[in-house]
Amino acid sequence: MNTLSLFDRPDGDGGEKDSERVFRVAELNRAVRSTLEAGWGDVWVEGELSDVTRAASGHVYFTLNDDVDAAQIRGVMFRGDASRAKATLESGARVRMRGSLSLYEPRGSFQIIVRLALPAGAGDLHAEFERIRKRLEAEGLLDVARKRPLPMFPRTVGVVTSASGAAVHDVLRVTAGRCPVRLVIADCRVQGKDAPDSIIDALTAIQRLPELEVVLLVRGGGSAEDLWSFNDERVARAIAACRVPVVAGIGHESDVTIADLVADVRAATPSNAAELTVPDRSALTARIEASRRHLERAFEAALGRARLRLEKLQRHMEDPRRAVAGIRNRFAALRHTLERLALRRLARAHAEVSNLRERLGALDPRRVLRADRERLVEMRARLRETPGPFVGEARLKLAQLASTLEALSPLAVLARGYAVTLHGASGRALLRSSDAKTGDMLTIRLHEGSLAATVTGIDAGAPKRKPSSKRTRSKR
Questions:
Q1: Domain match, 74 and 180 both
Q2: Most buried among 113, 191, 224, 354, by the most CB within 10 A?
Q3: 273 and 147 within one domain
Q4: Is 20 inside any structural domain?
Q5: For residues 385 and 227, what is the distance between their CA atoms, to the nearest angstrom?
Q6: How far is CA 33 from CA 27, 29, 72, 102, 110, in A?
């Protein structure tokens, strides 16, 4: 599709050059729409709603009026955006809207396509919301750590809501198909200036039930002004002070209130609050059945593994009779081995005894004595047969050797007039005059007796004889 601008001019190939181009109506509407959508982004606009119409498709059509200058603009919110609107879309409501400008080509109707709708003054409400949230957060009332878990199977559940609202019917409908539970409804106002006090009174009253286990604080959807009671700081503190866990199911999933933030559990809707609080009997039954089947499968698998192990062990186990027979065979083999070893040792012992007997026989004293006697007789006979000259020659040689030894005796040397000089302190024989010094005591050994002498002088002259004689001549 070609997009035309309002400022397009003829290209000179036809028509009058000085005159403006003549549009068809559809072309003009298309060009105006293109210019609006391209030249404007999202805009905010505030006014009063009128002629509000909800189509069967869910789209909402309306007129937004300026009550100061008596101006108006047509608008539309498509179904998805309309379901998330924070403002009440009804005639007479003052709203603040955000959307894009466009033109409805079939009728040439200027309009705004709205994607976000807030109550007029929503900026002030948002600022107040943030102020309360930050103060409660600073006090720790929004901490996750203080959130309490819900009882698994509650028997008594309190419901704080309007007894005539849609929320209580949603709770009753959901819990009817779930586990048996006693519902105690505390009626209160959920919209308007008196709603905060009414909610606080209902919360206080429901806690007087000693068997109370959990409280549902629920309300159906609505505009930001409709839900503002649940942003009241006093309501938030009453929720935090409740002695049992509180489940908040206020408005739709996109609606967030201070009560949602302070509650122990936040639910998207009243129905969801009931689902989170009361267990589903069919779901529990299904879970139990699934657990039973899981246990059965696990048991069967474990039993199968045990059977396989048993079969494996049985295959590895021997027949007791075969085991006994094997033991008997091993015992017989061992007995045969022991007998063979015993016989071998016995034979070796017999041989050793025989050997010892032979050795003992060889060492018999009578036999030894008899042999010695025989050798003695033989030696005597040999001595008798030895010639006389041989003995005389031996005796002469012995006398010569004795004379030689006598001549070499030190006593014989001393007998010829020699003496041996000994140092008095060490007892060592003196070979040189330098071995003593003046004043030393000396002992002079003679052939018969000895003399004690003192050195009074030393002659260090060269010796007349070689020092190898190692003797000193002394005059008697």
A1: no
A2: 224
A3: yes
A4: no
A5: 162
A6: 10, 6, 18, 6, 9
Amino acid found at 243: R
Which position has the token pair 């609505």? Answer: 222
Are 63 and 131 members of one domain?
Answer: no
- Round to whole Å and give the CA distance between 180 and 135: 40
* Residue 111 CB contacts under 8 Å (≥ 6 apart), including other chains: 73, 74, 75, 76, 101, 102, 103, 104
Amino acid (1-letter code) at residue 175: T
Residue 30 near residue 8 (C-beta atoms within 8 A): no
Is there a single domain that holds both residue 271 and residue 144?
Answer: yes
CA dist 256 and 250 (Å) reads: 8
User: Mean pLDDT over residues 395-422, rounded?
Assistant: 80
**Residue 120: pLDDT above 60?**
yes
In a domain, 229, yes or no: yes
**What is the C-alpha separation between 223 and 235, in angstroms, rounded?**
19
**Residue holding tokens 């050798």?**
375
What does the alpha-carbon distance between residue 448 and residue 406 come to, in Å, rounded to a whole number? 17
Q: 316 and 229, same structural domain?
A: no
Residues 139 and 267 occupy one common structural domain: yes
Q: Each residue of 70-101: pLDDT tens digit?
A: 789 999 999 999 988 878 888 888 888 999 99
Alpha-carbon distance of 45 to 78, in angstroms, equals 17
- Residue 154 CA to residue 243 CA, distance in Å, equals 15
User: For residues 125 and 134, what is the distance between their CA atoms, to the nearest angstrom?
Assistant: 14
C-alpha pair distances (Å), 75 with each of 38, 48, 71, 92, 227: 18, 12, 13, 15, 25
Position 299 pLDDT exceeds 80: yes
Look at residue 65 in the predicted model and tell me its pLDDT.
Answer: 92
Indicate whether 311 belongs to any domain.
yes
For residue 197, which of 233, 241, 168, 163 has the smallest C-alpha distance? 233
Residue 429 carries which DSSP code? Answer: B
Structure tokens at 385: 């047969």
- Please count the other Cβ atoms lying within 10 Å of the Cβ belonging to residue 84: 14
Residue range(s) defining the domain that contains residue 302: 280-346
Does residue 169 fall inside a structural domain? yes
Rounded-to-integer distance, Cα 46 and Cα 99, Å: 11
Number of domains in the chain: 5
The answer to whether the beta carbons of residues 240 and 217 sit under 8 Å apart is no
